[in-house]
Specification:
The protein is of the alpha/beta class and about 190 residues long. The chain has helices spanning about 1-10, 30-45, 55-65, 130-135, 150-165, 180; strands at about 20-25, 50-55, 70-75, 80-90, 95-105, 120, 140-145. It is built from six helices and seven strands. The longest helix has 18 residues, at about 30-45. The model has no long low-confidence stretch (mean pLDDT about 90).
Length: about 190
């Protein structure tokens, strides 16, 4: 399929500058498969890998579709938990406010979100809107709990911006992001 795609676009593997991946959060198996394929391709072609957060992709996609600039992204995780983060978009630049988190919807989420801004919630984790709104302490104008997932077009745009600013990482360093591990998560 990759060879077919390159042929369709009249590209050779040597035309590739970097390979973009969704680095997480997400399902363990999906993240591992994505990272493994990207690592193999990147090793074979001799290019770096650029990882982009699934939450960042959802935020930018919502910005493109609806024009929101202050976004509280919430994505369903396993065991009735959510992945969450706050993002601000200014022009074409998107900035994480605080850090990405995982936990039960009734816990405090959206670390680093400015309490004076007007926020909009996006992502399927907003099906827990009542619990999330009770703990945010933020002005949440509304939320859209419809299935909004990452997509290749938005991944490409964000990866290109990251590539231009910081380059990528060596293939062996292109690892999935597991929020539970980063947060020293206790079940």
């Amino acid at each position: 399929m990759i060879a077919e795609l390159l042929a369709e676009k009249s590209l050779a593997p040597t035309d590739i500058d970097a390979i973009a991946i969704v680095s997480g959060p997400g399902s363990f198996t999906g993240l591992r498969i994505g990272a493994g394929v990207a690592q193999g391709l990147a090793f074979g072609v001799g290019v770096p890998v650029v990882g982009v957060s699934a939450l960042e992709i959802i935020a930018m996609k919502a910005h493109y579709n609806e024009g929101y600039t202050h976004l509280l992204v919430c994505m369903r995780a396993r065991e009735d938990e959510v992945y969450s983060a706050a993002y601000c978009v200014c022009g074409e630049q998107i900035t994480l406010q605080g850090r990405e988190m995982v936990g039960a919807p009734q816990e405090r989420h959206f670390e680093g979100a400015d309490g004076t801004a007007k926020w909009f919630g996006v992502g399927d984790g907003w099906s827990y809107a009542q619990a999330l709104n009770a703990k945010t302490g933020l002005q949440v104008l509304g939320s859209n709990a419809s299935e909004m997932s990452s997509d290749a077009a938005t991944l490409s745009v964000l990866a290109s911006m990251k590539w231009a600013k910081h380059g990528g990482v060596a293939p062996e360093l292109a690892l999935p992001v597991y929020l539970k591990e980063q947060m020293d998560y206790q079940e």
